[in-house]
Amino acid sequence: MVMAEGVVTPNPAAGAAQPAAVPERPQIVAPSRKNTHGVVSGPVPHILDAATGLTPTLQKFRLDGKVAVVTGGARGLGFNMASALCECGVKAIAILDVLQDYGDDAIALLHHKYGVAAAFYNIDVRDEKAVQDVIASVQQNLGSVDILLCSAGIADSNIKAEEYPIDKFRRLIDINLTGSFICAQAAAQAMIAEGHGGSIIFIASMSGHIVNYPQQQSCYNASKAGVIHLMKSLAAEWAQYGIRCNSISPGYMDTALNRVPALEAQKTIWKSRTPQERLGNVDELNNTAVFLASEASSFMTGSDLVIDGGYCCW
Ligand SMILES: NC(=O)c1ccc[n+]([C@@H]2O[C@H](COP(=O)([O-])OP(=O)(O)OC[C@H]3O[C@@H](n4cnc5c(N)ncnc54)[C@H](O)[C@@H]3O)[C@@H](O)[C@H]2O)c1
After folding, report:
1. Keywords in UniProt for this one (predicted)?
2. Ligand 1 centroid distance, CA of 198 (Å)
3. What is the pTM of this model?
4. Ligand 1: nearest atom to the Cα of 175
5. SS (H, E, C) the chain
6. From ligand 1's centre to the CA of 200, what distance in Å?
7. Per the domain annotation, does 187 fall within a domain?
């Protein structure tokens, strides 16, 4: 039975089987009123956080005081997710990318718009020494790393497997899979040393679950399947240190990666095979990234979230 204040109590008609303990009643400022239709209204309970004005549930999405590192954050999905982390309170952000101009613009924008400390590091995620140095520099200049978001990645498509040049294959695996591991390892070493845990978010792809049609892209698909299983393996190993690892698997998103002439004709096919009949907008992973980075997902590790407009349903 639901009482006026919204407290669930045992139903007396159910007899002795009901548990004796009654849940604690929420704090109510003054008695609520019940109108003639039985609708409860009245003062707002005293549950809002004094500083932010948010309810406890929404408060868990805040990232105040955290330090985030975003690879591939100079543009595209990575930049948009970096913006969302800043909007939700991180105190500092480091962008790792190979695009100097985009990187410079990205940190200037993040600093001016959100007031965060922001640094750009022009490094290749395949360079393990450079990545180690960057994490050390972030710790020294921005603070200990709480969040790592691995968005750096490349795609090759429309290359038949029987003709795939091996050096091209190796390069893609090196960036998408090995590069993700190099960054995760460096961040995890820092998190373990600091002893405060953290959240590592990988950007995988629906291509790690299904085989795209009609383009041939065996290497990309394999790299992203590898990222998902790497994420699960690291989640299992690093849970003991309070490090959570999860991934996001986007469907077709409207970013520079897909704005190439060779793919234009295929976009019609992609949309027709997507229940929502469109590509994702560049900011449509933002809320998921904040969720995974924050305490809102505190009991979640080793999970992959597919965000694809329904593509994988068919
Ligand atoms: N766009 C999509 O449809 C889509 C779908 C599924 C998954 N993804 C994945 O999302 C991630 C971001 O893609 P995007 O669409 O924003 O692409 P993007 O090309 O706009 O962004 C990728 C960023 O990674 C950087 N990068 C590439 N290689 C790097 C390296 N070796 N070292 C450091 N930085 C490097 C690029 O410079 C770029 O800024 C990628 O991992 C991609 O595979 C994209």
Report:
1. NADP, Oxidoreductase
2. 23
3. 0.89
4. 31
5. CECCCCCECCCHHHHHHCCCCCCCCCCCCCCCEECCCCCEECCCCCCCCCCCCCCHHHHCCCCCCCEEEEECCCCHHHHHHHHHHHHCCCCEEEEEECCHHHHHHHHHHHHHHHCCEEEEEECCCCCHHHHHHHHHHHHHHCCCCCEEEECCCCCCCCCCHHHCCHHHHHHHHHHHHHHHHHHHHHHHHHHHHHCCCEEEEEECCHHHCCCCCCCCCHHHHHHHHHHHHHHHHHHHHHHHHCEEEEEEEECCECCHHHCCHHHHHHHHHHHHCCCCCCCECCCCCHHHHHHHHCHHHCCCCCCEEEECCCHHHC
6. 17
7. yes
| Same domain flag for 5 and 105 | no
The closest residue, in CA terms, to atom 43 on ligand 1 is: 153
Asked, for residue 52, whether it belongs to a domain, the answer is no
The domain that holds 75 is classified in CATH as 3.40.50.720
Q: Which residues carry out catalysis?
A: 205, 220, 224
Work out the percent of the chain whose per-residue pLDDT is above 90.
80
Q: Residues 12-59: pLDDT tens digits?
A: 343 344 555 655 655 544 555 666 777 876 656 678 888 888 999 999
Ligand 1 lined by 253 (C-beta under 6 Å): yes
In a domain, 302, yes or no: yes
Q: Does any domain span residue 59?
A: no
Ligand 1 centroid from CA 282, angstroms? 12
